[in-house]
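User: Before I run my own analysis I want an independent prediction to cross-check against. Here's the chain; please return only the structure tokens and, at the end, one sentence I can use as a sanity check.
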Amino acid sequence: MNTVETGSSRRMVAEPSRRGFLEGIGTTAFLLAFQLPVSPGRAGEPSGVSGQFNAFLAIGEDDIVTAIIAQTGGGQGNSTGMTQVIAAELGAAWPRMRYRFTTERRPEYINPMLYEGLVLTAGSTSIPGFYGAMRHAAAATREMLVAAAAKQLGASPDDLSVSESKVTHSPSGRYLTFGQLAAAAAKEQVPAEPRLRTRNELLLIGQSLDRLDVPPKVDGSARFGLDLEAPDMLYAAVRHGPPMGRWSRQLMMPRPRSCRASD
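Assistant: Structure tokens:
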């Protein structure tokens, strides 16, 4: 049995076998999975991406907060939903939120609700499976931003609040933006148990926001697997029997041109 935490609640989830899981989802669920060789590195260690605080988010000097998503987007909207969770806990301004998908293999990206050891997208588990981890990562980053701001403003962390991508000193109204604090905050100690916001403080949760994946799909800038092109790439097509329910027994065609075995 696996223990899955969602916010403040915990529940026990039976761990299925690989065969049992694949049989259970049938043909109606979208599934993408690969085995994850867990490296001996620290779980919270950044991968070296500029401005990356942890496995789930990065902050640039331009105030842009990028949600890092290992789940595959198949049109179900997780690129917006998962980004929304991070923005709500962090206290980021929604217009400054971005997302990017990653194929990096990290222990944090193993889906905790499904077969253990797989980075897997299936069964509408992207948000419930990573809700707690995303909030924890965002809360830790928020406290690192507050610690950096307290030093620069000469203020107590208790007098600082975080919203709209700013850390504000409530008594004086002075503030610093995420971009101004990002470099210094990245050097702060990562809190092991950051305070999570209460439900009433999660202002973006429950709001209907414009989906972030729509503009790139409309203007053609979004990249899909079918967009891949390689030098001297060959194309293949499946030849089916013309009548429904029939199949081809033999195919007569000219001898194909020679090609490398790697093709």
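Sanity check: The longest helix spans residues 126-153.
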